[in-house]
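User: Hey, quick favor. My workstation is busy. Could you predict this chain's structure for me?
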Amino acid sequence: MTSKRLSTSRFFPLCTWDSGVEKAHGRIERRTIDVLPAAAAGIEREWPTVRQICRIKRWRQFKKNGEWQPPQHEVVHLISSLTAASPQALLAINRNHWGIEIMHRNKDVILGEDGYTNRCDNAPRNIFSLTGFVLKILKSVSHSPTRAIEQFQDNKNRAIRLVSAFY
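Assistant: No problem, here it is.
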């Protein structure tokens, strides 16, 4: 069960939120967030737009080949310009951020988008559109873009037929 409580550290009061234990997708997770108003840290001059400073603790345990692996612990920090965001909202925003990152991961890692060096005219926008189009084609073949690429390597005519079908 989730709970919100006000706790005191030796430096300043923290607002803490605990997500509770969540079990899904072959893993168990628990996340907590400690939120400090930026004014309490005295950093207004250095960073005038920062409103909150957060520490997120993640605990994760995966199941692999039917056996639970040793738990993993991670601590990350974030800063926010949001003024009225609750700890629950900040934790949700941080977690949802990874949904966007996985989209970009496919473009970066599988299609090598970060390696493109042409910055002239509309080239970056065109490359972005083309890689999105390629990912859409790959997803129509397999849930895994890597497996779809492997299938196209074995049958290049299939790739040509799929691209032609979109026109």
